[in-house]
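re: that complex we talked abt at group meeting.

here r the seqs, copy pasted straight from the sheet so there may be weird spacing, ignore it
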Amino acid sequence: MPQPVPQVERTGGLARWAFAAVAAHLLLGVARVPGVVIGRRLADVDDYQRRGAVRFFLDTEHRGGADVVEWIRAHVPDAAAVLYRGDSKGAIEFAPALLAPRLLVAEGLCPDDAVSWAGRPLARRPASDGGRILVIAASDDGLRLETR
Amino acid sequence: MSPLERTERTVLAALIALALFGGTALPLLLLDAGVPAALLPLALVAGALCAVRARIDPAPAGRRAPRWLSWTIAALLAVVATAIAFGALATPSRHWDGAVAWDLRAHWLGRAPTLAQPFFADPAVLSPARDYPLLQPLLVAAGNSLLGDPAGRAMFPAVFVLFGALLGTAVRRATGSTALAWLVAGAALLTPALAGPTSGGADSGYGDLLLLACTTAIAAGLATQDGRLVFLGAVLAVLTKPEGLPYAVGAAGVLFVTGERALLRAAAAGVALAGAIWLPVQQRLAHGPEAVAAIAFVPPSLWLVLELLDAGARRASLRAGARAVVAAALAAGALGAAWWLRDAIGGTVRAYFGGVGDPLGRLGRLPAVVAGAANYGLLRGNFGLAFWAALLGVAAAARRRALRPLLPLAAFVAVGLVLAFVPFVLSPEIDLQHHLRSSMPRLLLHWLGPALLLGAAAIGAASPPTTDARPAIAAAR
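got the structure back, here u go
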């Protein structure tokens, strides 16, 4: 036997308000499409492409360390491991992605006399600059390059 | 075949393919066998074949949407989906977790799809979010391997569309209204927290979009009495993000309380299967103790316990209230076990339960957490009027005494929102306001689809019946 089906287009009271909320939500969403969904997204993409990933993430009001990452990318081979010490939260969180395929290894877990880790040479300063093993020193808002 | 059935088959095919891919890839990782990129197209073909043969009920009768409405919303959504596809493909992830956690895993799995490499195997190597689930990075890596970087990131606009289709078809089947289905799907996909270029947004690279699709699949299964959606949503939730496991367990708990046996089996089986697959991998990623093999037996054992409890509750004719007491005792036991075993389990569990030395002090955070949820969910605009629509719809259905058929879905949303509060109460993060600001919108995003579906189903339940057929949510009960 045929059964009744609710016709939501013919609602009353609170259900009408709920229906209106859905419709208003949709209209608010539509209003944001040109400026935010498209405009701000294009601006974000442009900013990222113009500045590059390193500056985009680590040259901001709240986070620094772009110079350190750029120096390592320019001078340390891809197949190296780079030691780090300090906070494991904050700016350092971006380092594994920005330095990949190099690996970041906790200095405290690496013996003092080690020259390699997991078959990878530890990153060093150039021989002309003493050749000492590099360590990224991480703080909440930035990175510094030190040696051990 | 009606457009509804066609869309439902496509949605089912995609969910089955994702579950097959994840369900095969993770055991391969555990065995150090490597995950061939060809697994992705194979899973897609298998998903399509399963969906073609699946039983799909004919579309329930109801009024069609005005053509101008469906075309207008479809055109708008095409524009938004194009913007999201551009945002996903033009650069790698431009937001925190997307860059530091999700993209990084996809990078290493793309170079070598195995856990037998230092990034995953060496605890000395810095790996933010070390024990996060790997389904999404595996998908991106497989796409990149097959079609070249950054093709794998096309999964983000694809999941965005999948989410909209899942929600729209569920609303159509639950309420009988095609117009409401289009409106709700359009509203959901245009929600600022999802469509905007923000942390957790569709193209941010975070796992929240895929988890949103999972919770919506579970909610759709509850609303339409489709155990397949509940099962697939539960499986995928566990494999997608750490929050997915408690969400899927929450769905099983709700179904235990409401006594929906077939759906309970679907949810519990999904959690048991996915948990047995994922937890050993999680243990290995977290460099936990050598309990890797044993932990695989925990979820199926808990499923068995739940089955026995459900059978006992049926024999004793326990009502929902008594079942809720049993479920609450189980939940308390699970939390206690997680706290007791925090060091043995390691990873995220240790991080969150390790600092709970002062339970009352932590509970003191609760008012601020609830206020934060109200702020971000209802007042700030991240979610527009989505949660308001759900609240008003539920109030309307309650006023007409039509809430009963919606109880499992409403309880799922309520439990999910409560679960979303837990990380803020347990977290070692000292600055609660910072934690709320950075995480609350993303946790609420997981409940956007279920809440809108609840609101739509409630509108349907509260509306005067006028024609000659009834929708699934009413017919099923």
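couple things i noticed - Chain A touches chain B through 59 residues (CB under 8 Å). Chain A has a mean pLDDT of 91.
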